[in-house]
Write a structure and sequence with these properties.
This protein is an alpha/beta fold. The protein folds into 2 domains: about 180 residues, Rossmann fold, CATH 3.40.50.300; about 80 residues, no CATH class. Helices cover about 40% and strands about 20% of the residues. Strands 6-7-8-3-9-10 form a 6-stranded mixed sheet, sandwiched between helices. Strands 2-1-4-5 form a 4-stranded antiparallel sheet, with helices on one face. A hairpin with a 2-residue loop joins strand 4 and strand 5. Bound molecules: adenosine-5'-triphosphate and magnesium ion (MG). The site of magnesium ion has 3 residues, from helix 1. This is Branched-chain amino acid ABC transporter ATP-binding protein. It comes from Streptomyces scopuliridis RB72. InterPro entries: AAA+_ATPase, ABC_AA/LPS_Transport, ABC_transporter-like_ATP-bd, BCA_ABC_TP_C, P-loop_NTPase.
Length: about 300
């Protein structure tokens, strides 16, 4: 986990390097030529309206989808597009739609997350074979540590399905951490959480970063994302529209327009709309305005 190696003049190393990632589904280009880097010690936010391609981009990074074009490297090595190999390489993720083993206990869910880091593998873990028993003590200790880290140690024996929604989301994070990643991808970690749970999750993500794990996080909660992130990238209709500090992204009128559903100059597919608007503007000699508050959902 302590991977803060300094091989270059900079103290930060590039953990994730996605270049020209494109994902097409038939005629639909869900992700278009997206470049994104994440360095060690960094929390990077990924925002964008519904359907912008954020989850699809995550799926391309984690081998769930084979990108139509582009390349994804982790710590300098191109990743094979196979989810278990990506996890093994050091990238872990959570899902927008929670994916826990609902009939397993909280502890067992974390133990399953460890299978890529133990020799025994998933089936041995699930079937509790002899090899698993040996590795079990160490795994158990680490899993309990992780449950403590997310504040769920007192529920280790509860069935995952009996946890409130917010706790299930946290359990997903613990399960992801169990694979001892160098990069954690979080897809809407606070969806369905109340404000207090969201604040706790914010602290949790900072604590994860402080352990030397880089974080790339998708969220619609703007307060959360801008508080948390060193850098934010905004996807709109599959393209990276802007990337920068919270100030830069919040101040970008195209981002505001995208969230409000107003086409911006140069937006993919916006030409026709722009023409119509120009015609309307001529007719009404009216200029379109947008709010300056970047807190839109
Ligand atoms: N497997 C698929 N087959 C066809 N189209 C897909 C597939 N997965 C995603 N899409 C389409 O790609 C586009 C991007 O979807 P995606 O789920 O990546 O958006 P998102 O930014 O994560 O949105 P949200 O904020 O609502 O989660 C959408 O138009 C979606 O319908
Ligand atoms: Mg999504």
């Amino acid at each position: 986990m302590n991977d803060m190696t300094t091989t270059t003049t900079s103290t930060r190393t590039t953990v994730l390097d996605a270049t020209g990632v494109t994902m097409r589904f038939g005629g639909l280009t869900a992700v278009r030529s997206v470049d994104l880097q994440v360095s060690s010690g960094e929390i990077v936010g990924l925002i964008g309206p519904n359907g912008a391609g954020k989850t699809t981009f995550f799926n391309c990074l984690t081998g769930l989808y084979v990108p139509t074009e582009g390349r994804v490297s982790y710590k300098g090595t191109v990743l094979p597009p196979k989810p278990h190999l990506v996890t093994q390489a050091g990238i872990a993720r959570t899902f927008q739609n929670i994916r826990l083993f609902s009939n397993m206990t909280v502890l067992e869910n974390v133990l399953v997350g460890r299978h890529t880091r133990t020799k025994e593998g998933l089936w041995s873990a699930l079937l509790r074979g002899p090899g698993f028993k040996k590795a079990e003590a160490a795994s158990h200790e680490r899993a309990m540590e992780l449950l403590e880290f997310i504040g769920l140690q007192h529920k280790a024996d509860h069935l995952a399905r009996n946890l409130p929604y917010g706790e299930q989301r946290k359990l997903e994070i613990a399960r992801a951490l169990a694979s001892e990643p160098g990069l954690l991808l979080l897809d809407e970690p606070t969806a369905g959480m109340n404000p207090q749970e969201t604040r706790v999750t914010e602290d949790l993500v900072f604590a994860i970063r402080d352990q030397g794990i880089a974080v790339l996080v998708i969220e619609h909660d703007m307060r959360f994302i801008f508080n948390l992130s060193d850098r934010v990238a905004c996807l709109v209709q599959g393209e990276k529209l802007v990337e920068g500090t919270a100030e830069v992204v919040q101040g970008d009128e195209r981002v505001i327009a995208a969230y409000l559903g107003t086409p911006f100059e140069g937006a993919p597919g916006a030409e026709e709309v722009a023409e119509v608007e120009a015609a309307e503007a001529d007719a009404h000699s009216d200029t379109s305005t947008t709010g300056s508050e970047g807190d839109a959902k």
